[in-house]
Amino acid sequence: MSKLDSKKGYKKSGKNEGTFKKKSFNKDNSFKKKKAEPKKPSDPNLIRLNRYVANSGVCSRREADIYIASGNVTVNGKHVSEMGYKVKLTDDVRFDGRRLNPIKREYVLLNKPKDFVTTGRDERGRRTAKGLISAASKNELKVIGKLDKHSTGLILFTNDGELTKRLNSPKNGLRKLFHIELKKPLRSADLKKIQDGLAIDDKVVKVQEISFVENAPKTQVGIEIYSTRSNIVRRIFEELEYEIAKLDRVVYGPLTKKDLPRGHWRYLTEQEVINLGMIQ
Questions:
Q1: What does the DSSP assignment read for 181-195?
Q2: CATH topology of domain 46-99
Q3: Superfamily of domain 176-252
Q4: Nearest-CA neighbor of 114 among 264, 250, 262?
Q5: Residue 101's closest CA among 114, 109, 91?
Q6: pLDDT digit string, tens, across residues 87-146
Q7: How far is the C-alpha of 120 from the C-alpha of 131, rounded, in Å?
Q8: Percent over 90 (pLDDT), the chain
Q9: Is the dihedral of CA 167, 168, 171, 175 positive or negative?
Q10: Please, is 202 exposed, middle or buried when counting C-beta atoms within 10 Å of its C-beta (0-12, 13-18, 19+)?
Q11: Cα–Cα dist 245/16, whole Å
């Protein structure tokens, strides 16, 4: 008898020529494949140590392996040099004595369209800028540099609390450039008043520069300002009884709208993050 009987589907056993082993067939006479055993689900509360260190912003994952092997990293007070070592998110992980935060820092730049509010959630059901970047991250990102509903332009989202606090500080010196369109031409005398500084709520607002947009009607103005006061640009013109038709933030610190269409977002580059980090 041959090793495989096509009618009965029997096969000789390799160890004992006198015994036979039945093989399973599919309906089309092809052999059935053994089902692979399901992989055990990974513990979501565990993370590789090198990833933990890299997510904290100290270095890349490859560099983290070097630091771990060199003994720069401790877990719950003990030095760990084992490659592939896993830790819990609640563990006390330190790099050269400084405790690390394992949540990866993320930075998302949005070119906000009109009629989107910049609050996290809106009780009145209005569309939010945060909804436009919902696919960017699973982490909770907070907005830096809010814009009112009717304004457009650059706003930044991040979970970097230290950067948020620094950029929102009145002393940060963060440059912001706006392109404004008024419903009536701006008089040169009023442009001079803004340039010299207007008092709003008994506090003078200083602008770095203001000028008419070149080769455009006198209704269009560019203004550069460093103030962090809420809606301060709109309030400047309202103080002089001008109504704003369009207000667009085209520059925010070192960030610009280049290659970022209205309503779209992108992640910051590594160099852009470094540039923001240099702002004190």
A1: EESSPPPHHHHHHHH
A2: 3.10.290
A3: Pseudouridine synthase (3.30.2350.10)
A4: 262
A5: 91
A6: 998 899 999 998 888 788 899 999 999 999 987 666 677 899 999 999 999 888 999 888
A7: 9
A8: 56
A9: positive
A10: exposed
A11: 92
Spatial CA neighbour of 144 closest among 102, 177, 174, 114: 174
Q: What is the DSSP letter of 213?
A: P
Report domain extents, the chain: 46-99, 107-169+259-277, 176-252
Spatial separation of the C-alpha atoms in residues 79 and 81, rounded to whole Å: 7
Query: Residue 110 corresponds to which tokens in the numbers above?
Result: 């949005």
Where are the strands (E) in 4-90, listed by range?
Answer: 10-12, 20-22, 46-48, 73-75, 78-79, 86-88
* Matching fold, domains 46-99 and 107-169+259-277: no
> What CATH code is assigned to 107-169+259-277?
3.30.70.580
**To 5 degrees, how large is the angle CA 228–CA 186–CA 260?**
50
Nearest CA-CA partner of 222 in 235, 233, 206, 238: 233
Q: pTM value?
A: 0.70
User: In whole angstroms, what is the distance from residue 216 CA to residue 160 CA?
Assistant: 40
Copy the structure tokens of residue 171: 């002393």
Across 52-76, b (16+ Cβ under 10 Å) vs e yields bbbbbebbeeeebbebbeeebbbbe
Q: How many CA atoms lie within 13 A of 7 on its CB side?
A: 2
Query: For residue 187, what are its two tokens?
Result: 């008089």
